[in-house]
Amino acid sequence: MDARRVRALIARTPALSAENLQALLAAAGGELEGSLAAPLVRHADLPNAARAFLTAPDEIAVDTDLAWLDTSGAAILLSTDPQYPPLLREIAAAPPALYVLGSVEALAAPQLAMVGSRNPTPAGRSTAHEFAAWFARAGLTVTSGLATGIDAASHAGALEGGGATVAVCATGLDRVYPAEHAALAARIRARGALVSEFPPRTAPLRRHFPQRNRIISGLSLGTLVVEAARHSGSLITARLAGEAGREVFAIPGSIHSPVSRGCHQLIKQGAKLVDEASDVISELRISVPKEQLRTPHTEPARAVALDNEYEMLLDALGFAPATIDSLVARTHLPSASVASMLLILELEGRVAALPGGRYGRIP
Amino acid sequence: MDARRVRALIARTPALSAENLQALLAAAGGELEGSLAAPLVRHADLPNAARAFLTAPDEIAVDTDLAWLDTSGAAILLSTDPQYPPLLREIAAAPPALYVLGSVEALAAPQLAMVGSRNPTPAGRSTAHEFAAWFARAGLTVTSGLATGIDAASHAGALEGGGATVAVCATGLDRVYPAEHAALAARIRARGALVSEFPPRTAPLRRHFPQRNRIISGLSLGTLVVEAARHSGSLITARLAGEAGREVFAIPGSIHSPVSRGCHQLIKQGAKLVDEASDVISELRISVPKEQLRTPHTEPARAVALDNEYEMLLDALGFAPATIDSLVARTHLPSASVASMLLILELEGRVAALPGGRYGRIP
Lengths: 363, 363
Prior knowledge:
Chain A is of the alpha/beta class.
């Protein structure tokens, strides 16, 4: 059996664990092509469903998968592959296989999961977008679930911030759920990755969503819940993050807002309250070496120096309106940095964009 | 010297500590009347200002104090009195004397301090009012500082909940600061107490406020900060509560609301997040008899029904602009309630005020 077919078979095997796969590979002397040989499978300690499938595989399904892999350009990443994301390997019930559309490398980059309500407030949606753009600029990949609401705003914000973003799907990657996110999914694929442990043609079954959530939190250094009602799926993601020893962050809101109740519950249970994007970076800085925040194709992590640079920029701005060019001359910061810092300061209500491309400080 | 005059003298003595007073009383063999005898004062270990005053007291000031005590009915409570509040006695720099208008017993009841911004949002003010009423029904005395904003709303809410409330003032009790709270002060006196460590005719000096705050937190099992900006005086009260080993609670809010930033800062530093009044009770491990939460002369806790009323109003509003009158007709809520609910919804970004006195829902 050729390597491509072996990988497609493994990825479609029900009930197989990463440990099972590791044992099969070891029994085959490290040769993946030989790991599904009949005598090996017969003697391996496997769940019944996995053994039954591997003994008599659904060849038509596998053929169809292979055809889709060809046309779509999707890759299969196995837990025994060296490129498999190291943080994901650590979790309980790590998936033995992932289908990936886009950049496999994106899965190993330092990631922050951002999740939340499918019915957020307008303010929550815009917070997700702004924070995600900020994290992207700080060099973090934003990982989420492609759902409507907070998920979509987080992906879109990360893209706008010039960063990578990973969407973990609860369906096969031959479809986009929800369908209206097809354009967003295409952008995510181009600048990050779409990932699923579910084989092609898997429909969005309800029980797949919590299962999928463990991959979102498992890929990530921490999980930030932006807005969530009580009993929402985002709280499952947060719980799984905590169980995997990852940081859990939550953004507070009005006590009268139902989609803040879940966040408040998390904070009561020990999640870190986040009211500025930089809170996440300073909390994660403990576990993220600075170099990791500085991947080659992103600007150097501004997060650490951020406060000083912002103060400097505000000082340079004074209280008379100025253009970006004159601020670049005054601060010696790159003009792209000045522009994005002004955007953040504008979002924070500290500067205002004025006619003629000038910016003014708000006292 | 008669007992009344001795107490008035002690209360007016500058720089005297509760420990100094305790030592003087012990040296006088437990006889308060003898504790200010010249030989005792001469040999006692006293701050210079205290010794100077006790050696040559301002008799005119003391006479004026005594006249005021007579006409106002105020009492002086010394730290050596058995009725002195036990929790207050525990703190560093416990006041040796308190002037009290109203019920001295109220000071020994289980208290919760509620403090916050003098410029709260309407939602914050109404939260303070509702929570204080709930605490009152739960049998807690609400202690605050009689300031405008959160303080006043907390006192008023406690009174409306049928409970007692204590106002700790930063002026002499012969005046009310701010003056517009004269009616509120009279109600507090009738159903609780006004307290000050400052002698009559003390003006509201700026430095008195942080000093006063230690008494608010010192009297209380815990301190709840409802809304507070960064660097606000309420954070001083919270810090003093923490230093005295008392619980610190804070109510979260929108990350875009400046008067929630102080609360968020407290939560980051370890304060308990409170989004329901009952959180405070369960944290303080106070058992509340159910009947107390449902006293005959108060309506059942509105907090529970609140969300429903807001939902009803939003449903009634639909997505076509409507006037307050038409909303009153649709919901059968009082027009004052509709108006204030709309205001809150507007602040939460859920409705917008439109020309012609109409309101529109923000999708």
